[in-house]
Design brief:
This protein starts with 7 loop residues before the first strand and ends in a 24-residue tail after the last helix. The chain is an alpha/beta fold. A hairpin with a 2-residue loop joins β3 and β4. The chain is 45% helix and 12% strand. It has helices at 30-35, 46-49, 80-93, 132-140, 155-177, 180-189, 191-197, 199-210, 217-231, 238-249, 258-272, 278-292, 295-298, and strands at 8-12, 40-44, 60-64, 67-72, 77-78, 99-102, 114-117, 125-129, 145-148. The radius of gyration is 22 Å and the shape is elongated.
Amino acid sequence: MRKFPKPTVVTSKCFEFDACRYNGAMIPNNFVQKLEPFVKFVPVCPEVEIGLGVPRDVIRVVEKKGKKLLVQPTTGKELSKSMYKFAEGFLNSLDSVEGFILKSRSPSCGVNNAKIFRDADNPAPIGKGPGLFAEKVLEKFPGAAIEDEGRLMNYNIREHFLTKLYTLARFREVSIKNTAKALIDFQSDNKFIFMSYNQREMRALGKIAANENKLPIEDVISEYEKHLHHALSNHPRRSTHINTLMHGLGYFSKKLTSKEKAYFLDLLDNYRNSKIPLSAILSVLESWIVKYEEEYLARQTFFEPYPRELMDISDSGKGRAL
């Protein structure tokens, strides 16, 4: 049974934690409910924290001369300085954090879809971008798993978010141990994940972990972390997943019958053509891992990157091509 560290996840407080939405509502969120036993949540409502009440009048992101402002049309308040000050202080106070789940379209928390207006009273937006709190999140934690609740309804996006979240949490344990062995074990156990995400970075991470120049371990871990963030920055593609699966098949090539190999390759074709999910092929490989006692593959987090209890194949239908 694989053990998982608890990632720290900052979340908008209006999800399940408090009725602090601008209209006085609390937003039910099944994903946050399911995730709560497996992470350490840090709920926050930036708008309440800067003194706005519940309920409260609407605030807007306004762009003037290339500068983003946060304004409240009904009162004429300009809240940008207060929001940026709070964001800086709050984010700097976090000991460690692996992920963020923020409210979509919020002028404070929207990750990339907060409406931007030319002025406070013009009802027509001129574009979209991050809210002011989310802007600071993206600046300070560019390597974290950061999503809004709307995008997490998509299976592929949710899968990437959870895989990244727990990979970063495992790496935090490496940083705490601060030993060459911990780093080498991490690289070895996560090799298939890196292979499915970015093969170039997988090789770079391997070289860094090997530390042929005998650098201080603190420097090695710091450099490794930069490449780890880059490796996990984009969703894996079907083609890279298939390459990783074929690599896994190679461990059993002399043990399988021709019919078993043909069956596996047929599954790969179905996955390539989006007819079956990745989990259908993983289950076959996992059965062979157990049958043939392949210890190296058994340690690969690729086969269980996050707790199975969080697996949910539901999908919003948006973004399936990811």
